[in-house]
Each structure stands twice: as C-alpha cells, then as structure tokens.
Amino acid sequence: MSGYNSVFKKDLFKDEVVLVTGGGTGIGRCIAHELASLGATVVIAARKQEQLTSVAEEITKLGGKCDTMQINIRDPIKALEMIEAIVAKHGKLTCLVNNAGGQFMSPASMLSSKGFATVVDLNLNGTFNMCKAAFDGYMGEHGGKIVNIVAECRNGFPRMVHTGAARSGIINMTKTLAVEWGPYNGIRVNCVAPGTIVSSGMKNYPENVVDMIATNDWMSPSGRYGTESEIAASVVFLLSPAAAYINGVNLAVDGGSSLSKGFPEGHELAFNPEGSLVPAYVGWPEGKDNVHNLKHVDAPAKVNALLDKYKKSKL
C-alpha cells in the first residue's frame, strides 16, 4: 500500500466532487488525502496557496485528483464565486467539508471585543458563508452533504470563549440547516467535534502550553489524544452512504474527554497514568509502504512523539 491507508472501501467516492476548506494543513490535509484515496475529486481551499500546492502535489503523486483554490471564507461573494467556479470546472459539488477556522488562547477577562469578534467572524460567519454559497451555487437544486468541523464545547471552553461561542453557534446552525434544507433540497448537514488532536495546529500554541499538552495526554477516558486520521475517518463516514439517515448531529470524536470536564479537583485519579489501552488509528503509509516519502503529522516534536507511543498501545 503506497497511498493513504483508509479503512473504507476503495472508490467509495469515485463520483464525488468534494470541497475541503482549510485543506492545506493538519486535519484538512488528512481529510483531503483520505477522500482522494477513495476516488473523490478533491478541491482544497485556503488563504495560502503555497500550502495548497504542496498538498495537491502529494495527492497527485499518489494517483489522486486534487484541485486548489484560494479563499477567505469571511467574504460571502468570493465564497459563491468559488463554488460556481468548481461547478463550472467539475460539473458538480456533492460534498462540502467546512474545516477552515482558527483561534488563540486567552482567558475571557483579557480578551478584547475585537479579538472575540474576529474569531466569531472567521469560524461562525465563515462557515455560514460556505454553507450558503454551496446551497446557492449547486446543492439547493441537486442535494449534497455538508460536514462542519467544530470543537468539543458542550461544557464550555475555558481560555477560548470566542471559539466556544462560535463553534456552539455552528452546531446550532447545523441543526437548523438540516431541518430547513433536508426535506426539499436533499441536503444532509452534520458536525464533527474533535477533542485534542495531534496535529500541526499545536504549533500555534506557546511552548509552555505545548509542554502541558505533551505531558497530560493520559488524562481522559481513552488515555490519549486523537489522531488526524480518526477525525478524517469520521468525516468520511458522515459523507458516505452509510450515514444517509444521519442529519443534524454533532459527532464528538474526543475519546470521551468531554465527559470528564468540570470534575472536582482530583479527577485525574479516575484515569490511568500509564496511558492508553485504546489503539490509535493512523492512516498515513509507513516504512516501505511510504514510497513517496509522504510527510506525516507536523505537530511540535514532543507532541508528535506521542503518536509513536499510541501506535504501540494494545490490550
């Protein structure tokens, strides 16, 4: 196996055209790779063309089909123009994965109104812009599948009140769109809410935060963090025919970590300090199978090292 090692059936998406925003790095890159490995024509979109070009070259080397487009999802006019360009070139747009977004760490007491508004605009408004553009540009008449990547925020989001508010808004919006767009337009809209995932996004955090992340991975019911591949597989499932009767849900992919939020001091005693007994799924090819020297996860080194530990976990 020289390409992405998906658990799903080969050619499952051979007739699909899928747009993945934020597809140039991290989870978005992994989603794009898996969908392309399953036969989809993938269009990845983000603000930085250099990252998009790099991922498209990776996918093409592996025999996949990948196109790129630059976009600022905060601009609704540009969003619609992009959807129309995709339909003009590829004939359709059957799936949309809203993965683009961003945030930074700050206690609410130190967060400015501008900082709050910026994150809400990018994540909540940007996701709506893309959903509406997909509806107006193709899916309203032809149907389709949408997956919005959010965050696990059911019990609040300390130190990230801005993204907690934005992602909660997306979750509610997803339910509303499922009700409004399902019956007459044939559109399914769902969310995936990742927990802490070993990904390149961790490079945006200060060194002290990375240190904390690297040493606290065992403090959850699953005893580890998640992998990009586990998020990608969840997205692929929700886009697949197997999820045809799933609409308006928020699928938490967090190893049960959200169940432990808000426990009183000492809740760490409920978890296993030796780490995980739950094997991790990683779809990137390794060793002799990685004939194209495909880069794997690009998280900070001390966090990346956790993946090697997870791969050895077994009951």
TrEMBL record:
InterPro entries (UniProt xref): NAD(P)-bd_dom_sf, Peroxisomal_t2-enoyl-CoA_red, SDR_fam
GO (cellular component) term, any one: peroxisome
Catalytic EC class: oxidoreductase
Reaction catalysis annotation: (2E)-dodecenoyl-CoA + NADPH + H(+) = dodecanoyl-CoA + NADP(+); (2E)-octenoyl-CoA + NADPH + H(+) = octanoyl-CoA + NADP(+); (2E)-tetradecenoyl-CoA + NADPH + H(+) = tetradecanoyl-CoA + NADP(+); (2E)-decenoyl-CoA + NADPH + H(+) = decanoyl-CoA + NADP(+)
Superkingdom: Eukaryota
E.C. designation(s): 1.3.1.38
Subcellular location: Peroxisome
Primary site of residence: other
GO molecular function: trans-2-enoyl-CoA reductase (NADPH) activity
Keywords for the protein's UniProt record, in alphabetical order: Fatty acid biosynthesis, Fatty acid metabolism, Lipid biosynthesis, Lipid metabolism, NADP, Oxidoreductase, Peroxisome, Phosphoprotein
This protein's pathway: Lipid metabolism
Pfam families for the chain: adh_short_C2
SUPFAM superfamilies with a match to the protein in the record: NAD(P)-binding Rossmann-fold domains (SSF51735)
One GO process term, biological-process aspect: fatty acid biosynthetic process
PANTHER family: PEROXISOMAL TRANS-2-ENOYL-COA REDUCTASE
Binding partners and assembly: Interacts with PEX5, probably required to target it into peroxisomes.
Main function: Participates in chain elongation of fatty acids. Catalyzes the reduction of trans-2-enoyl-CoAs of varying chain lengths from 6:1 to 16:1, having maximum activity with 10:1 CoA. Has no 2,4-dienoyl-CoA reductase activity.
Name of this chain's protein: Peroxisomal trans-2-enoyl-CoA reductase
Organism: Linnemannia exigua
